[in-house]
Amino acid sequence: MAKASHKVTAKLNNNVRKALAIATIEADTLSVFDHFSYQADWSNFPNSLMVNCHLQHNLAPSESALLQEKLRKLLQLSLLKQGIKFRDFRKNITLNYDSETLP
Predict the structure, then answer these.
(1) Cis peptide before 46 (omega within 30 of 0)
(2) Is the pLDDT of residue 25 over 60?
(3) CA atoms within 13 A on the CB side of 58
(4) Distance (Å, rounded) from C-alpha 80 to C-alpha 7?
(5) Is-contact 74 21, C-beta < 8 A?
(6) How far apart (Å, rounded) are the C-alpha atoms in residues 20 and 25?
(7) Tens digits of per-residue pLDDT, 41-85?
(8) In angstroms, rounded to a whole number, what is the distance separating the alpha carbons of residues 61 and 63?
(9) Is the pTM of this model over 0.85?
(10) How confident is the model at residue 88 (pLDDT cuts 50, 70, 90)?
(11) How far apart are CA 103 and CA 66, in angstroms?
(12) Considering Cα of 61, then 64, then 70, then 75, what sign does the dihedral take?
């Protein structure tokens, strides 16, 4: 049973990685975008999947809200293409401002 569980976990992990790679290609066109990262409890997937969007610097609150909505839609579409659906994706994405990447 452990091997089957490992195969499922590996497949889910690969699907998340593919989705984030696809989303990264489009997100790279945004000047403030740095990278995506994620963590998940595979026993409670997909509800436990948390995606962090790392940005190079802080934005004004109105710009931040617009960017977050755009990145949410981009990630949701990429994950859907990999067969990963959420009840409420807004709980699964956060923006992080990376001070170490400031010029």
Answers:
(1) yes
(2) yes
(3) 3
(4) 20
(5) no
(6) 9
(7) 988 998 899 999 998 877 787 888 888 889 989 999 999 999 998
(8) 5
(9) no
(10) confident
(11) 23
(12) negative
Task: Pick the closest to residue 19 from 91, 69, 71, 80 (CA basis).
Answer: 80
Residue type, 14: N
- Contact status, residue 34 vs residue 54, Cβ threshold 8 Å: yes
* 100 CA to centre of own chain: 20
Number of residues in the chain: 103
Please tell me the distance from the alpha carbon of residue 62 to that of residue 55, in angstroms, as a whole number: 15
* pLDDT of the residue at 93: 82
Domains of the chain: 2-101 (3.30.300)
Question: 95 is written with which tokens?
Answer: 């923006």
Residue 65: which H helix or E strand, with range?
Answer: helix 61-81
Beta-carbon neighbour count of residue 5 at 10 Å? 11
45/9 Cα distance (integer angstroms): 9
